[in-house]
Amino acid sequence: MFKKILVPTDGSETAQRAAQAAIDLALRYQAELALVSVVDPMPFVSFAGGEALSYYLEAAQEASTQGLAWVEDLAAKSGVSTTRQVLREHGPAQAICSFAQSAGCDLIVMGSHGRRGMDAVILGSVAQKVLTLAQVPVLIVK
């Protein structure tokens, strides 16, 4: 049924639970996982630039790498093959949906909420936006 499952992660506990669910599905359907993390430089660009922006991007890249490595390790222990990529784009939901389409994913499995804090309250959650924009089924894990 599913051949390629997209797992967006920000390293949060909810994203980790979603990753476990995706691994279980991948085992059941003999699917591969496409792991992505989105680094959005725009929220920070409006406040500061130069050295501060560079520090933010470096820290965000490191957090993304750690979140992806955690999922990749868990998948490897279960015998599930993965690919991974960090996307540097404004608008995580749009980036996730675009990646799903271009990579040929037939399911997105993601956490209901992550590390977005007040942005989620004011602008809506990334998960909610992915549900609206995605062209493939989306499984939201709480």
Task: Describe the structure in your own words.
- The chain is α/β, with parallel strands linked by helices and 142 residues long.
- Helices cover 54% and strands 20% of the residues.
- It has a single domain (4-141), classed as HUPs (Rossmann fold), CATH 3.40.50.
- It has 6 helices and 5 strands; from the N terminus they run E-H-E-H-H-E-H-E-H-H-E.
- Strands 3-2-1-4-5 form a 5-stranded parallel beta sheet, sandwiched between helices.
- Helix 1 (13-29) links the parallel strand 1 and strand 2 (32-39).
Largest sheet: 5 strands, parallel
Overall spatial form:
globular
Strand order of the largest sheet: 3-2-1-4-5
Gyration radius, rounded: 15 Å
Q: How many beta-strand segments?
A: 5
Relative strand content: 15-25%
Category from helices, strands and their pairing: alpha/beta
Distance between the termini: 23 Å
* Low-confidence parts: 117-123
CATH superfamily: HUPs
